[in-house]
Amino acid sequence: MAITSAVCTSFKVEFLKGVHDFTANGALIYNDSATGDPAVCAIAFGSDKTVTSGTFTIQFPTADSTDAIIRIA
Questions:
Q1: What backbone torsions phi and psi does residue 61 show, to the nearest 5 degrees?
Q2: pLDDT tens, position by position, 1-23
Q3: Cα separation, 25 vs 10, whole angstroms
Q4: Residue 10: CA atoms inside 13 Å, Cβ hemisphere, count?
Q5: Do residues 30 and 39 make contact, with C-beta atoms less than 8 angstroms apart?
Q6: pLDDT tens, position by position, 54-69
Q7: What is the pTM for the complete model shown?
């Protein structure tokens, strides 16, 4: 039986929160439990996102076969 699709469900909807002043244009997801903390994927936001004395939240889409941030078909 061949695998026809896969969905990564290990991401939380609100993945990153922090109260700081900064500008970001992307994110790096890494495996904190693996030796050397290797990168899993890099994400480009498409433009600068700036936070000033607020909360920065990356909200991922629903983890399903059509909307998940990582889909393997």
A1: -70, 170
A2: 444 444 555 544 444 555 567 88
A3: 23
A4: 8
A5: yes
A6: 777 888 888 888 888 7
A7: 0.51
The number of residues making up the chain comes to 73
Q: How far is CA 73 from CA 1, 8, 43, 61, in A?
A: 14, 12, 19, 17
Structure tokens at 69: 């941030």
With tokens 């030796």, the residue in question is: 35
CA angle at 44 for the pair 13 and 39, rounded to the nearest 5°: 75
H-helix or E-strand spanning residue 22: strand 19-30
Distances 15 to 2, 12, 27, 56 between C-alpha atoms, Å = 31, 5, 11, 10
Taking only the tens place, the pLDDT of each residue in 30-63 is 888 889 889 888 888 899 988 887 777 888 888 8
Alpha-carbon dihedral 18, 20, 21, 25, rounded to 10 degrees: -30
